């Protein structure tokens, strides 16, 4: 949703791998080259950065920004929830979800590897009647990013899911994202997608 809103206002969005070190690298690159001005960065684990004050997730700046937004919209007679609903109505109802499976020990490591190889070697042609239109294997170092064991699948309705072994825990994580015309439609779509994908993942448990 952030990318769609940014595009609406003419701002360019760049994707990095998960981790603020990658966002920080972009900030430093822009400062050195002058090719762009860093405005705002964020990642899946609720971290945010605005401006060039820090190179890691900074709750102080994020807290000030949300307070400023709340005060501004209160002066307009709106709550932050009201504004969020307006954004959904304007740009679409986005919904995301994370599922993870903890697989401990040597057997767990082997199961996680097997799950990744299963999806890598036999990507689905369709899910829930929707064609899989794009498969991205980031182990090849796509888009100039460092190689990582990450697989992403995009469906014809622009929903997507991504599989990634955790780098710090004995887990495999699966990320899901959909965009619907209503909150109910988005909720239904993401549940169907989660059920289909996790049924295949859980075959290895």
Q: How are the elements arranged and paired?
A:
Elements: H1 2-8, H2 20-33, E1 40-43, E2 47-50, H3 59-75, H4 80-91, E3 93-102, H5 105-121, E4 126-127, E5 130-137, E6 151-155, E7 160-165, E8 171-180, H6 183-201
Antiparallel strand pairs: 1-2, 3-8, 4-5, 5-6, 6-7, 7-8
Model description:
The chain is an alpha+beta fold and 205 residues long. It is built from 6 helices and 8 strands. The protein has helices at residues 2-8, 20-33, 59-75, 80-91, 105-121, 183-201, and strands spanning 40-43, 47-50, 93-102, 126-127, 130-137, 151-155, 160-165, 171-180. The strands form 2 sheets. It has a 6-stranded antiparallel sheet with strand order 3-8-7-6-5-4. A hairpin with a 3-residue loop joins strand 1 and strand 2 (47-50). The longest helix has 19 residues, at 183-201. It is globular, with a radius of gyration of 19 Å. The two termini are 33 Å apart. 14% of the residues are buried.
Helical content stands at: 40-55%
Q: Output the structural class.
A: alpha+beta
Mean pLDDT: 93
Biggest sheet overview = 6 strands, antiparallel
Q: What count of helical segments does DSSP give?
A: 6
User: Ranges with pLDDT <50 over ≥5 residues?
Assistant: none
Strand content: 15-25%
**SSE pattern:** HHEEHHEHEEEEEH
Q: Count the strands?
A: 8
The general outline is globular
Radius of gyration: 19 Å
Distance between the termini: 33 Å
Strand order of the largest sheet: 3-8-7-6-5-4
